[in-house]
Amino acid sequence: MKELAQLRRRLGQPGTILCLGNGPSSESAELPTDFDCLFRVNWIWRQRAFLIEPDLVFTADPDLPPPGSRAILGFPTAAAADRILRAHLRQDRSPAAWFTVPDLSPELAAGRWPAYPTNGALMIGVAAALRPQRLVIAGIDLYQDPEGKYPGASDEPNEYGDLHDRNTDLDYMRTALSGYDGELVILSAALKSSLKTV
């Protein structure tokens, strides 16, 4: 799938997309139960056994999808897609479908930015480009949530990795959301505060 229209058709032109990053607010009590599509990032959320049947997963990690997963995979670059899909084929596991963000929309390509936007930022960009009536975002906490990096106990540093940058993520998401005219609900306090100019 290399075009936005194809992805929209495959997802059934969703009215509400719920985008969940991996931060603590991804398990907010305010999360809606009435959504059409669930987008997630990487696979760490599987350990929490919460909202574990996404329609689309944005990833650059080699972890295999769970058996029977029908999730479409979104990759930040063609190189990441090639590397990860080869690993999946070696395990005799093929995704239901996949795309790269640059093929889907060159305007959303990570290489256009001074640092690589995180998969969470890319997820927001693609979700906004699909133009759902309602877009709900949680779990994109910009590594500023006092609870830490993930929901529950974690000893991982609550900070961006070497390839990523908070300002780039924010600029990317501001740009992606600037043309979105549906209902936007942000349940990540740090993100909501940082994007208040949107």
Walk me through what this model shows.
- The structure is a single chain.
- This protein has 198 residues and is an alpha/beta fold.
- It has one domain (4-194): sialyltransferase cstii, chain A (Alpha-Beta Complex).
- The chain has six helices and seven strands; from the N terminus they run H-E-E-E-E-H-E-H-H-E-H-E-H.
- It has a seven-stranded parallel beta sheet with strand order 5-4-3-2-1-6-7.
- It is globular, with a radius of gyration of 16 Å.
CATH topology: sialyltransferase cstii, chain A
Low-confidence stretches: none
The structure class reads alpha/beta
CATH superfamily: Alpha-2,3-sialyltransferase
CATH architecture: Alpha-Beta Complex
What sequence of helices (H) and strands (E) makes up the elements? HEEEEHEHHEHEH
Secondary-structure map:
Elements: H1 4-11, E1 16-20, E2 37-41, E3 56-58, E4 72-75, H2 78-90, E5 97-100, H3 101-104, H4 119-129, E6 134-138, H5 166-178, E7 183-186, H6 189-194
Helix pairs in contact: 4-5
Could you list some keywords that capture this structure?
alpha/beta; sialyltransferase cstii, chain A; 7-stranded parallel beta sheet; 7 strands; 198 residues; globular; single chain
Brief summary of the model shown:
This protein has helices spanning 4-11, 78-90, 101-104, 119-129, 166-178, 189-194; strands spanning 16-20, 37-41, 56-58, 72-75, 97-100, 134-138, 183-186. It is of the alpha/beta class and 198 residues long.
